[in-house]
Amino acid sequence: MTKRAMFPAHQSLPSPDDRDGAGVAALVLGLMALLMTCLVRGFLFAIPVGIAAIVCGSIGVGRAKRGEASNGRMARAGLTIGSVVTISTLGFLVWLIQGLRDAYPSS
User: Fold this and answer.
1) pLDDT at 70 over 70
2) CB of 38 within 8 A of CB of 89?
3) What are phi and psi of 2, to 5 degrees?
4) Comparing C-alpha atoms, which of 35, 36, 77 is closest to residue 58?
C-alpha cells in the first residue's frame, strides 16, 4: 500500500513580476457597473464605472499580451462587461432624453 499525502501540495505564491491588478480591477468594476444599472439612480454611476472597467481591461489585456500578467481572460471579461454596460446605458439615456423632449416640448 502506498502512502498518500494527507494534504495536497500548496500552490506557490504569484511572483512579484506578475501585474494582474488591472485585470482584476476590470472584472470587479465591470460587475459593479452591471449591478449599478439595476439601481434607480445607479445607471448614472454605471457609465463612469464602466469606462473605468474599459480602461483597466485594456491595460490588463495589453499586459497579458506582453507576458507581464497571467490573467488575460479576466481582463478581457472585464473589458467586455464594461463595454456592454457603458454602451447600453448610454443608449438608454439617449432614449430617455429623447422621450422626455417629445413628451414635454419647449413650445
Assistant:
1) yes
2) no
3) -90, 150
4) 77
